[in-house]
Amino acid sequence: MAISLSNFLFAICPLLSLISAGTVTHDFEVSWIYANPDGSQNRPVMGINGQWPIPTITATKGDRIIVNLKNSLGNESTSLHFHGLYMNGSTHMDGPIGVTQCEIPPGSSFTYNFTVNLIDQPGTYWYHSHQRGQYPDGLRAPLIVHDTDSPHKNLYDEEIVLSFSDWYHDLMNPLLAQFLSIANPSGAEPVPDSSLLNETRDLSVKVEPGKTYLVRMVNMGAFAAQYVWFEDHTMQIVEVDGIYTEPTDADMIYMTVAQRYSVLITTKNTSDANFAFVGSMDQDLFDTVPEGLNPNVTGWLVYNDANEKPAPKELQAFDPFDDYTLVPQDKEEIYDHVDQQITLDMKMDNLDDGENYAFFNDITYVAPKVPTLYTALSTGANATNPVIYGANTNQFILAENQVVEIVLNNDDPGKHPFHLHGHAFQVVYRSEEEAGFYDPNNHTAFPSTPMRRDTILVRPNGNIVLRFRSDNPGIWLFHCHIEWHVASGLIATIIESPLSLQSQLDGRIPANHLQACADAGTPTAGNAAGNTKDVFDLSGENTSPGTLPAGFEAKGIVALVFSCIAAFLGMAVISWYGLSEIKK
Ligand code: C2O
Q1: Torsion angle defined by CA atoms of residues 307, 311, 317 and 318, in that order, rounded to the nearest 10 degrees
Q2: pTM of whole model > 0.85?
Q3: How many structural domains compose the chain?
Q4: Is 538 inside a domain boundary?
Q5: Which residues span the domain enclosing 564?
Q6: Each residue of 16-63: pLDDT tens digit?
Q7: Which of 272, 432, 515, 543 has its CA 20 to 30 A from that of 54?
Protein backbone atom coordinates (compact mmCIF):
# COMPACT_ATOMS: atom_id res chain seq x y z
CA MET A 1 0.00 0.00 0.00
CA ALA A 2 1.35 3.35 -1.03
CA ILE A 3 1.48 6.11 1.57
CA SER A 4 0.99 9.60 0.24
CA LEU A 5 3.54 12.28 1.04
CA SER A 6 1.02 14.27 3.04
CA ASN A 7 0.07 11.23 5.10
CA PHE A 8 3.71 10.55 5.70
CA LEU A 9 4.36 14.13 6.79
CA PHE A 10 1.28 14.03 8.98
CA ALA A 11 2.54 10.85 10.64
CA ILE A 12 5.99 12.21 11.40
CA CYS A 13 4.83 15.71 12.21
CA PRO A 14 4.57 15.15 15.99
CA LEU A 15 8.09 13.75 15.83
CA LEU A 16 9.34 16.77 13.93
CA SER A 17 7.83 19.09 16.49
CA LEU A 18 9.42 17.09 19.29
CA ILE A 19 12.77 17.41 17.63
CA SER A 20 12.31 21.08 16.89
CA ALA A 21 11.09 21.66 20.49
CA GLY A 22 14.64 22.54 21.26
CA THR A 23 16.07 25.95 21.09
CA VAL A 24 14.72 29.38 20.29
CA THR A 25 17.65 31.67 19.45
CA HIS A 26 17.53 35.42 18.98
CA ASP A 27 20.33 37.82 18.11
CA PHE A 28 19.22 41.17 19.50
CA GLU A 29 21.09 44.37 18.85
CA VAL A 30 19.59 47.15 20.97
CA SER A 31 19.83 50.67 19.59
CA TRP A 32 17.95 53.96 19.52
CA ILE A 33 15.53 54.57 16.70
CA TYR A 34 12.66 57.01 16.24
CA ALA A 35 8.98 56.17 16.61
CA ASN A 36 5.69 57.99 17.04
CA PRO A 37 3.34 55.35 18.43
CA ASP A 38 0.53 57.65 19.58
CA GLY A 39 0.71 59.93 16.54
CA SER A 40 1.47 63.05 18.57
CA GLN A 41 5.19 62.94 19.31
CA ASN A 42 8.09 61.48 17.41
CA ARG A 43 10.74 60.43 19.94
CA PRO A 44 13.72 58.09 20.39
CA VAL A 45 12.79 54.56 21.49
CA MET A 46 14.91 51.51 22.21
CA GLY A 47 14.59 49.19 19.24
CA ILE A 48 15.98 45.77 18.44
CA ASN A 49 17.72 45.14 15.12
CA GLY A 50 16.48 48.50 13.90
CA GLN A 51 12.81 47.72 14.63
CA TRP A 52 10.30 48.98 17.14
CA PRO A 53 8.02 47.58 18.56
CA ILE A 54 10.54 44.93 19.52
CA PRO A 55 9.73 41.27 18.74
CA THR A 56 7.54 39.02 20.85
CA ILE A 57 9.49 35.97 22.00
CA THR A 58 7.55 32.76 21.40
CA ALA A 59 8.56 29.35 22.72
CA THR A 60 7.03 26.03 23.70
CA LYS A 61 7.16 24.55 27.16
CA GLY A 62 10.48 22.74 27.45
CA ASP A 63 12.37 24.92 25.00
CA ARG A 64 15.72 26.51 25.61
CA ILE A 65 15.74 30.25 24.95
CA ILE A 66 18.99 31.92 23.93
CA VAL A 67 19.20 35.67 23.50
CA ASN A 68 22.51 37.08 22.28
CA LEU A 69 22.25 40.72 23.28
CA LYS A 70 24.47 43.45 21.90
CA ASN A 71 24.22 46.91 23.41
CA SER A 72 24.49 49.49 20.63
CA LEU A 73 22.66 52.24 22.52
CA GLY A 74 25.84 54.27 22.71
CA ASN A 75 24.86 56.23 25.80
CA GLU A 76 23.20 53.79 28.26
CA SER A 77 23.90 50.41 29.82
CA THR A 78 21.21 47.77 29.58
CA SER A 79 20.04 44.24 30.51
CA LEU A 80 17.01 41.99 29.94
CA HIS A 81 14.70 40.34 32.47
CA PHE A 82 12.27 37.57 31.49
CA HIS A 83 9.42 38.52 33.75
CA GLY A 84 7.70 35.62 35.49
CA LEU A 85 10.01 32.80 34.42
CA TYR A 86 11.31 30.94 37.47
CA MET A 87 14.82 30.53 36.05
CA ASN A 88 15.40 27.31 37.99
CA GLY A 89 19.12 26.72 38.19
CA SER A 90 19.77 29.89 36.17
CA THR A 91 19.35 32.88 38.49
CA HIS A 92 22.38 34.37 36.70
CA MET A 93 20.13 34.73 33.60
CA ASP A 94 17.41 36.68 35.46
CA GLY A 95 18.56 40.14 34.38
CA PRO A 96 18.44 42.77 37.16
CA ILE A 97 21.60 44.87 37.20
CA GLY A 98 23.47 44.88 40.49
CA VAL A 99 21.60 41.76 41.56
CA THR A 100 22.29 38.83 39.24
CA GLN A 101 24.59 40.53 36.73
CA CYS A 102 26.63 43.61 35.95
CA GLU A 103 25.35 46.34 33.69
CA ILE A 104 26.05 45.70 30.00
CA PRO A 105 27.77 48.92 28.95
CA PRO A 106 27.51 50.39 25.45
CA GLY A 107 29.47 48.27 23.00
CA SER A 108 29.34 45.11 25.14
CA SER A 109 27.47 41.85 24.58
CA PHE A 110 25.81 39.37 26.93
CA THR A 111 24.11 36.02 26.34
CA TYR A 112 20.97 34.89 28.17
CA ASN A 113 20.58 31.12 27.96
CA PHE A 114 17.98 29.21 29.98
CA THR A 115 15.29 26.56 29.66
CA VAL A 116 11.64 26.87 30.57
CA ASN A 117 11.22 23.18 31.31
CA LEU A 118 12.67 22.44 34.73
CA ILE A 119 9.36 23.37 36.22
CA ASP A 120 6.59 23.34 33.61
CA GLN A 121 5.93 26.98 32.92
CA PRO A 122 3.58 27.66 30.06
CA GLY A 123 1.66 30.90 29.73
CA THR A 124 1.87 34.63 29.17
CA TYR A 125 5.01 36.48 30.21
CA TRP A 126 7.01 39.44 29.00
CA TYR A 127 10.59 40.55 28.84
CA HIS A 128 11.98 43.97 29.59
CA SER A 129 15.10 45.89 30.45
CA HIS A 130 16.03 45.68 34.14
CA GLN A 131 18.31 48.67 34.04
CA ARG A 132 16.90 51.32 36.35
CA GLY A 133 14.07 53.24 34.73
CA GLN A 134 14.72 51.97 31.23
CA TYR A 135 11.94 49.75 29.89
CA PRO A 136 9.35 52.54 29.44
CA ASP A 137 11.62 53.85 26.66
CA GLY A 138 10.37 50.85 24.69
CA LEU A 139 12.60 47.90 25.62
CA ARG A 140 9.68 45.58 26.48
CA ALA A 141 7.58 42.94 24.69
CA PRO A 142 5.43 39.86 25.39
CA LEU A 143 7.01 36.43 25.84
CA ILE A 144 4.63 33.55 25.17
CA VAL A 145 5.26 29.94 26.22
CA HIS A 146 2.90 27.59 24.38
CA ASP A 147 1.65 24.39 25.95
CA THR A 148 0.55 21.33 24.01
CA ASP A 149 -0.97 19.98 27.26
CA SER A 150 -2.98 23.07 28.15
CA PRO A 151 -6.17 22.14 30.00
CA HIS A 152 -7.94 24.79 27.92
CA LYS A 153 -6.59 23.85 24.50
CA ASN A 154 -9.90 22.37 23.31
CA LEU A 155 -11.77 25.49 24.33
CA TYR A 156 -10.43 27.89 21.71
CA ASP A 157 -9.64 28.19 18.00
CA GLU A 158 -7.01 30.89 17.83
CA GLU A 159 -4.78 33.11 19.94
CA ILE A 160 -4.45 36.88 20.07
CA VAL A 161 -1.73 38.74 22.03
CA LEU A 162 -2.51 42.25 23.30
CA SER A 163 -0.11 44.50 25.17
CA PHE A 164 -1.41 47.53 27.07
CA SER A 165 0.82 50.32 28.32
CA ASP A 166 1.05 53.91 29.34
CA TRP A 167 3.30 56.08 27.20
CA TYR A 168 5.46 59.18 27.80
CA HIS A 169 6.50 61.73 25.19
CA ASP A 170 9.73 62.44 27.11
CA LEU A 171 12.55 60.00 27.68
CA MET A 172 12.96 58.34 31.03
CA ASN A 173 16.29 59.93 31.92
CA PRO A 174 15.04 63.53 32.02
CA LEU A 175 11.78 62.38 33.63
CA LEU A 176 13.73 60.52 36.33
CA ALA A 177 15.81 63.63 36.95
CA GLN A 178 12.60 65.64 37.52
CA PHE A 179 11.04 62.92 39.66
CA LEU A 180 14.06 62.37 41.91
CA SER A 181 14.70 65.99 42.64
CA ILE A 182 14.71 68.42 45.52
CA ALA A 183 12.14 70.34 43.49
CA ASN A 184 9.74 67.36 43.80
CA PRO A 185 9.84 66.68 47.55
CA SER A 186 6.38 65.07 47.57
CA GLY A 187 7.51 62.44 45.05
CA ALA A 188 4.78 63.16 42.49
CA GLU A 189 5.30 60.68 39.64
CA PRO A 190 5.35 61.92 36.03
CA VAL A 191 1.92 61.34 34.50
CA PRO A 192 1.82 59.46 31.17
CA ASP A 193 0.90 61.39 28.03
CA SER A 194 -1.17 58.61 26.51
CA SER A 195 -1.75 54.91 26.42
CA LEU A 196 -0.98 52.25 23.80
CA LEU A 197 -2.32 48.90 22.61
CA ASN A 198 0.29 46.71 20.92
CA GLU A 199 2.50 49.82 21.00
CA THR A 200 0.07 51.81 18.81
CA ARG A 201 -3.39 53.37 18.94
CA ASP A 202 -6.69 52.57 17.25
CA LEU A 203 -5.79 48.90 16.89
CA SER A 204 -7.99 46.69 14.71
CA VAL A 205 -8.11 43.01 15.63
CA LYS A 206 -9.60 40.88 12.89
CA VAL A 207 -12.00 38.20 14.20
CA GLU A 208 -14.38 35.71 12.64
CA PRO A 209 -17.90 34.98 13.81
CA GLY A 210 -18.66 31.90 15.90
CA LYS A 211 -15.11 31.32 17.12
CA THR A 212 -13.43 31.34 20.50
CA TYR A 213 -10.18 33.21 20.94
CA LEU A 214 -7.57 32.94 23.66
CA VAL A 215 -6.67 36.58 24.26
CA ARG A 216 -3.38 36.96 26.09
CA MET A 217 -3.06 40.39 27.70
CA VAL A 218 0.03 41.98 29.24
CA ASN A 219 0.33 45.36 30.94
CA MET A 220 3.83 46.50 29.94
CA GLY A 221 3.41 50.03 31.29
CA ALA A 222 5.66 52.00 33.63
CA PHE A 223 3.04 53.23 36.04
CA ALA A 224 -0.66 53.00 35.19
CA ALA A 225 -2.87 50.02 35.91
CA GLN A 226 -5.52 49.51 33.24
CA TYR A 227 -9.19 48.73 33.45
CA VAL A 228 -9.92 46.48 30.45
CA TRP A 229 -13.26 45.54 28.93
CA PHE A 230 -14.68 44.30 25.63
CA GLU A 231 -18.07 45.74 24.74
CA ASP A 232 -20.80 43.09 24.52
CA HIS A 233 -18.32 40.23 24.93
CA THR A 234 -17.66 38.36 28.17
CA MET A 235 -14.13 37.45 29.15
CA GLN A 236 -13.52 34.07 30.70
CA ILE A 237 -10.28 34.20 32.69
CA VAL A 238 -8.20 31.02 32.28
CA GLU A 239 -4.68 32.16 33.21
CA VAL A 240 -3.07 34.85 35.37
CA ASP A 241 0.69 35.42 35.34
CA GLY A 242 1.39 31.95 33.92
CA ILE A 243 -0.93 30.09 36.34
CA TYR A 244 -3.96 28.33 34.84
CA THR A 245 -7.20 29.13 36.63
CA GLU A 246 -10.61 27.58 36.83
CA PRO A 247 -12.43 29.36 33.97
CA THR A 248 -14.10 32.41 35.53
CA ASP A 249 -16.28 35.03 33.86
CA ALA A 250 -15.48 38.72 34.11
CA ASP A 251 -16.91 41.80 32.40
CA MET A 252 -14.00 44.02 33.35
CA ILE A 253 -10.54 43.31 34.72
CA TYR A 254 -8.03 45.50 36.51
CA MET A 255 -4.52 44.80 35.27
CA THR A 256 -1.62 46.43 37.14
CA VAL A 257 1.66 47.02 35.37
CA ALA A 258 3.48 43.70 34.88
CA GLN A 259 0.34 41.54 35.34
CA ARG A 260 -0.97 39.21 32.64
CA TYR A 261 -4.39 37.71 31.96
CA SER A 262 -5.45 35.13 29.39
CA VAL A 263 -9.17 35.20 28.66
CA LEU A 264 -11.44 33.24 26.34
CA ILE A 265 -13.69 35.40 24.19
CA THR A 266 -16.36 33.86 22.00
CA THR A 267 -17.40 35.95 19.04
CA LYS A 268 -20.93 36.66 17.85
CA ASN A 269 -22.53 34.41 15.26
CA THR A 270 -22.85 37.17 12.69
CA SER A 271 -20.56 39.83 11.25
CA ASP A 272 -23.14 42.63 11.42
CA ALA A 273 -21.16 44.90 13.71
CA ASN A 274 -17.70 45.63 15.04
CA PHE A 275 -17.09 46.10 18.77
CA ALA A 276 -14.83 48.40 20.75
CA PHE A 277 -12.59 47.24 23.55
CA VAL A 278 -10.88 49.62 25.91
CA GLY A 279 -7.91 49.98 28.21
CA SER A 280 -8.42 52.82 30.67
CA MET A 281 -5.60 54.04 32.89
CA ASP A 282 -6.44 54.13 36.60
CA GLN A 283 -6.22 57.86 37.26
CA ASP A 284 -6.28 57.34 41.04
CA LEU A 285 -2.55 56.72 40.64
CA PHE A 286 -1.90 60.22 39.34
CA ASP A 287 -1.28 63.07 41.81
CA THR A 288 -2.71 65.52 39.31
CA VAL A 289 -4.54 64.72 36.10
CA PRO A 290 -3.28 67.06 33.38
CA GLU A 291 -5.95 68.85 31.44
CA GLY A 292 -6.75 67.13 28.19
CA LEU A 293 -5.26 63.75 29.18
CA ASN A 294 -7.07 60.94 27.40
CA PRO A 295 -6.76 57.99 29.81
CA ASN A 296 -8.19 55.53 27.30
CA VAL A 297 -6.88 53.49 24.44
CA THR A 298 -9.40 51.84 22.16
CA GLY A 299 -9.18 48.81 19.92
CA TRP A 300 -11.84 47.04 17.87
CA LEU A 301 -12.86 43.46 17.34
CA VAL A 302 -13.33 43.79 13.60
CA TYR A 303 -15.81 41.31 12.16
CA ASN A 304 -16.19 43.21 8.92
CA ASP A 305 -13.86 45.89 7.57
CA ALA A 306 -16.71 47.48 5.65
CA ASN A 307 -18.60 48.33 8.85
CA GLU A 308 -17.91 51.29 11.12
CA LYS A 309 -15.73 51.10 14.21
CA PRO A 310 -18.01 52.58 16.86
CA ALA A 311 -16.70 54.88 19.56
CA PRO A 312 -16.79 53.15 22.96
CA LYS A 313 -19.77 53.87 25.18
CA GLU A 314 -19.23 56.01 28.26
CA LEU A 315 -19.11 54.12 31.55
CA GLN A 316 -20.80 55.25 34.75
CA ALA A 317 -18.26 53.55 37.03
CA PHE A 318 -15.46 51.03 37.06
CA ASP A 319 -16.41 47.72 38.60
CA PRO A 320 -13.58 45.29 37.93
CA PHE A 321 -13.37 41.61 38.76
CA ASP A 322 -11.44 40.81 41.98
CA ASP A 323 -8.55 38.46 41.16
CA TYR A 324 -8.27 37.45 44.84
CA THR A 325 -11.24 35.13 44.26
CA LEU A 326 -9.64 33.16 41.39
CA VAL A 327 -8.88 29.48 41.93
CA PRO A 328 -5.80 27.89 40.35
CA GLN A 329 -6.68 25.04 38.04
CA ASP A 330 -4.30 22.65 39.88
CA LYS A 331 -6.12 23.44 43.16
CA GLU A 332 -2.89 23.71 45.08
CA GLU A 333 -3.88 24.07 48.72
CA ILE A 334 -2.83 26.88 50.98
CA TYR A 335 0.47 26.29 52.80
CA ASP A 336 -0.98 25.72 56.22
CA HIS A 337 2.05 26.64 58.26
CA VAL A 338 4.84 29.18 57.92
CA ASP A 339 8.50 28.42 58.56
CA GLN A 340 9.95 31.83 57.88
CA GLN A 341 8.24 35.20 57.88
CA ILE A 342 9.35 38.44 56.28
CA THR A 343 7.57 41.63 57.27
CA LEU A 344 7.92 44.65 55.02
CA ASP A 345 6.51 47.97 56.19
CA MET A 346 6.57 50.33 53.26
CA LYS A 347 6.41 54.10 53.21
CA MET A 348 7.52 57.13 51.22
CA ASP A 349 9.59 59.86 52.85
CA ASN A 350 12.34 62.41 52.29
CA LEU A 351 16.03 62.02 52.99
CA ASP A 352 18.43 64.84 53.76
CA ASP A 353 19.09 65.57 50.09
CA GLY A 354 15.46 66.72 49.98
CA GLU A 355 14.38 64.03 47.50
CA ASN A 356 11.49 61.65 48.05
CA TYR A 357 12.38 57.97 48.51
CA ALA A 358 10.50 54.72 49.05
CA PHE A 359 11.32 52.49 52.01
CA PHE A 360 10.90 48.98 53.33
CA ASN A 361 11.43 48.96 57.09
CA ASP A 362 13.02 52.43 56.89
CA ILE A 363 15.62 51.38 54.32
CA THR A 364 15.59 52.55 50.71
CA TYR A 365 17.31 50.24 48.23
CA VAL A 366 20.67 51.25 46.80
CA ALA A 367 22.40 48.76 44.49
CA PRO A 368 25.62 47.34 45.96
CA LYS A 369 29.03 47.72 44.31
CA VAL A 370 29.18 43.96 43.67
CA PRO A 371 26.08 42.29 42.20
CA THR A 372 24.48 40.33 45.06
CA LEU A 373 24.79 37.02 43.20
CA TYR A 374 28.54 37.44 42.90
CA THR A 375 28.78 38.25 46.61
CA ALA A 376 26.86 35.05 47.39
CA LEU A 377 29.14 33.00 45.13
CA SER A 378 32.44 34.43 46.37
CA THR A 379 32.06 34.47 50.14
CA GLY A 380 31.95 30.77 51.09
CA ALA A 381 30.22 29.99 54.36
CA ASN A 382 29.72 33.72 55.06
CA ALA A 383 27.15 33.83 52.24
CA THR A 384 24.44 32.99 54.78
CA ASN A 385 25.24 36.11 56.81
CA PRO A 386 23.01 39.02 55.76
CA VAL A 387 25.55 41.63 56.87
CA ILE A 388 27.88 41.07 53.92
CA TYR A 389 25.19 42.13 51.42
CA GLY A 390 25.29 45.73 52.64
CA ALA A 391 23.28 48.34 54.49
CA ASN A 392 20.83 49.32 51.73
CA THR A 393 19.77 46.14 49.92
CA ASN A 394 16.86 45.06 52.19
CA GLN A 395 18.26 41.55 52.12
CA PHE A 396 16.61 38.43 53.51
CA ILE A 397 18.32 35.03 53.58
CA LEU A 398 15.97 32.09 53.02
CA ALA A 399 16.77 28.57 54.18
CA GLU A 400 16.04 25.79 51.71
CA ASN A 401 12.58 24.27 51.30
CA GLN A 402 10.77 26.43 53.81
CA VAL A 403 7.30 27.86 53.59
CA VAL A 404 8.02 31.58 53.42
CA GLU A 405 5.46 34.26 54.20
CA ILE A 406 5.79 37.87 53.11
CA VAL A 407 3.59 40.30 55.02
CA LEU A 408 3.54 43.68 53.32
CA ASN A 409 2.02 46.66 55.10
CA ASN A 410 1.40 49.65 52.85
CA ASP A 411 1.85 52.76 54.97
CA ASP A 412 1.20 54.94 51.94
CA PRO A 413 -2.03 56.22 50.37
CA GLY A 414 -1.02 54.88 46.92
CA LYS A 415 -1.74 51.60 45.14
CA HIS A 416 1.34 49.46 44.51
CA PRO A 417 1.78 46.34 42.31
CA PHE A 418 4.37 44.06 43.94
CA HIS A 419 6.36 41.50 41.99
CA LEU A 420 8.57 38.63 43.16
CA HIS A 421 11.21 37.23 40.83
CA GLY A 422 11.81 33.46 40.69
CA HIS A 423 8.43 32.36 42.10
CA ALA A 424 4.70 32.64 41.87
CA PHE A 425 3.19 33.15 45.33
CA GLN A 426 -0.09 32.23 46.95
CA VAL A 427 -2.08 35.37 47.73
CA VAL A 428 -3.38 34.23 51.10
CA TYR A 429 -4.73 37.60 52.16
CA ARG A 430 -5.43 41.01 50.71
CA SER A 431 -7.06 43.67 52.83
CA GLU A 432 -9.38 46.40 51.70
CA GLU A 433 -7.93 49.88 51.53
CA GLU A 434 -7.35 51.79 54.79
CA ALA A 435 -7.20 48.53 56.77
CA GLY A 436 -3.82 49.48 58.22
CA PHE A 437 -1.19 46.91 59.15
CA TYR A 438 -1.91 43.20 58.95
CA ASP A 439 -3.23 41.73 62.19
CA PRO A 440 -2.76 37.93 62.27
CA ASN A 441 -5.51 37.71 64.89
CA ASN A 442 -8.07 39.71 63.01
CA HIS A 443 -8.72 39.00 59.34
CA THR A 444 -11.28 37.22 57.18
CA ALA A 445 -10.65 33.50 56.58
CA PHE A 446 -7.90 32.60 54.12
CA PRO A 447 -8.99 30.87 50.89
CA SER A 448 -8.30 27.11 50.90
CA THR A 449 -6.92 27.18 47.31
CA PRO A 450 -5.51 30.68 47.02
CA MET A 451 -4.80 32.46 43.78
CA ARG A 452 -1.18 32.22 42.70
CA ARG A 453 0.52 34.81 40.54
CA ASP A 454 3.76 36.79 40.40
CA THR A 455 2.45 40.38 40.61
CA ILE A 456 -0.22 41.59 43.03
CA LEU A 457 -1.76 44.91 43.96
CA VAL A 458 -1.71 46.15 47.54
CA ARG A 459 -4.42 48.70 48.20
CA PRO A 460 -3.89 52.19 49.67
CA ASN A 461 -2.91 51.88 53.37
CA GLY A 462 -3.79 48.20 53.16
CA ASN A 463 -1.82 44.97 53.43
CA ILE A 464 -1.15 41.68 51.64
CA VAL A 465 0.09 38.28 52.83
CA LEU A 466 1.91 36.04 50.33
CA ARG A 467 3.31 32.51 50.71
CA PHE A 468 5.69 30.41 48.63
CA ARG A 469 8.11 27.54 49.09
CA SER A 470 11.84 28.25 48.93
CA ASP A 471 12.55 25.55 46.36
CA ASN A 472 14.50 27.68 43.89
CA PRO A 473 18.00 28.72 45.01
CA GLY A 474 18.78 32.14 43.61
CA ILE A 475 18.88 35.89 44.15
CA TRP A 476 15.35 37.20 43.60
CA LEU A 477 14.13 40.76 43.80
CA PHE A 478 10.83 41.67 45.39
CA HIS A 479 9.77 45.13 44.29
CA CYS A 480 7.03 47.52 43.36
CA HIS A 481 6.72 47.32 39.57
CA ILE A 482 5.93 51.01 39.16
CA GLU A 483 9.18 52.00 37.49
CA TRP A 484 9.30 55.32 39.39
CA HIS A 485 9.27 53.43 42.67
CA VAL A 486 12.02 51.07 41.50
CA ALA A 487 14.10 54.21 41.00
CA SER A 488 13.14 55.59 44.43
CA GLY A 489 14.20 52.35 46.14
CA LEU A 490 11.10 50.19 46.77
CA ILE A 491 13.07 46.95 46.45
CA ALA A 492 14.01 44.01 48.69
CA THR A 493 16.55 41.29 47.86
CA ILE A 494 15.67 37.66 48.57
CA ILE A 495 18.81 35.53 48.91
CA GLU A 496 17.44 32.01 48.64
CA SER A 497 19.57 29.05 49.79
CA PRO A 498 22.95 30.69 49.11
CA LEU A 499 25.00 27.57 49.86
CA SER A 500 22.98 25.46 47.38
CA LEU A 501 23.39 28.31 44.96
CA GLN A 502 27.15 28.02 45.35
CA SER A 503 27.10 24.33 44.50
CA GLN A 504 24.85 25.03 41.47
CA LEU A 505 26.71 27.96 39.99
CA ASP A 506 30.16 28.40 41.48
CA GLY A 507 32.62 28.59 38.60
CA ARG A 508 29.78 28.50 36.06
CA ILE A 509 29.23 32.17 35.41
CA PRO A 510 29.78 32.45 31.63
CA ALA A 511 32.84 34.32 30.44
CA ASN A 512 30.69 36.83 28.54
CA HIS A 513 28.92 37.80 31.79
CA LEU A 514 32.25 38.43 33.51
CA GLN A 515 33.47 40.32 30.45
CA ALA A 516 30.51 42.72 30.73
CA CYS A 517 31.59 43.37 34.35
CA ALA A 518 35.15 44.00 33.23
CA ASP A 519 33.91 46.36 30.50
CA ALA A 520 31.76 48.20 33.04
CA GLY A 521 34.46 48.27 35.72
CA THR A 522 32.20 46.39 38.16
CA PRO A 523 33.91 44.09 40.69
CA THR A 524 32.69 40.47 40.75
CA ALA A 525 33.80 39.24 44.15
CA GLY A 526 33.62 40.15 47.80
CA ASN A 527 30.99 41.80 49.96
CA ALA A 528 28.63 44.61 48.90
CA ALA A 529 31.57 47.03 49.06
CA GLY A 530 33.83 44.79 46.98
CA ASN A 531 35.99 43.83 49.97
CA THR A 532 37.30 40.29 49.40
CA LYS A 533 39.70 40.13 52.38
CA ASP A 534 37.39 41.03 55.24
CA VAL A 535 33.81 40.50 54.15
CA PHE A 536 32.57 42.14 57.36
CA ASP A 537 34.28 45.40 56.51
CA LEU A 538 31.79 47.32 54.40
CA SER A 539 33.58 50.63 54.30
CA GLY A 540 33.13 52.35 50.97
CA GLU A 541 29.82 50.60 50.21
CA ASN A 542 27.02 52.40 48.36
CA THR A 543 24.50 53.92 50.76
CA SER A 544 21.52 56.23 50.62
CA PRO A 545 21.56 59.87 51.77
CA GLY A 546 21.01 60.33 55.50
CA THR A 547 17.70 60.77 57.29
CA LEU A 548 16.23 64.18 57.96
CA PRO A 549 16.22 65.56 61.48
CA ALA A 550 12.98 64.60 63.26
CA GLY A 551 10.09 66.92 62.51
CA PHE A 552 11.47 68.05 59.14
CA GLU A 553 8.98 67.65 56.32
CA ALA A 554 8.67 68.11 52.60
CA LYS A 555 7.09 71.54 52.96
CA GLY A 556 10.01 72.59 55.11
CA ILE A 557 12.38 71.44 52.41
CA VAL A 558 10.65 73.49 49.75
CA ALA A 559 10.82 76.51 52.03
CA LEU A 560 14.48 75.82 52.68
CA VAL A 561 15.28 75.42 49.00
CA PHE A 562 13.56 78.61 48.08
CA SER A 563 15.12 80.58 50.90
CA CYS A 564 18.54 79.25 49.83
CA ILE A 565 17.85 80.24 46.24
CA ALA A 566 16.64 83.64 47.41
CA ALA A 567 19.74 84.09 49.58
CA PHE A 568 21.97 82.98 46.74
CA LEU A 569 20.30 85.39 44.31
CA GLY A 570 20.61 88.10 46.92
CA MET A 571 24.34 87.48 47.30
CA ALA A 572 24.78 87.30 43.55
CA VAL A 573 23.09 90.66 43.12
CA ILE A 574 25.16 92.20 45.90
CA SER A 575 28.42 90.93 44.44
CA TRP A 576 27.45 92.01 40.96
CA TYR A 577 26.52 95.41 42.28
CA GLY A 578 29.68 95.52 44.33
CA LEU A 579 31.83 94.55 41.37
CA SER A 580 30.31 97.17 39.15
CA GLU A 581 30.92 99.74 41.90
CA ILE A 582 34.60 98.82 41.93
CA LYS A 583 34.86 99.01 38.17
CA LYS A 584 33.55 102.50 38.24
CU1 C2O B 1 9.19 42.79 35.52
CU2 C2O B 1 11.93 43.04 38.49
O3 C2O B 1 10.56 42.89 37.00
Answers
A1: 70
A2: yes
A3: 4
A4: no
A5: 556-584
A6: 444 445 899 999 999 999 999 999 999 999 999 999 999 999 999 989
A7: 515
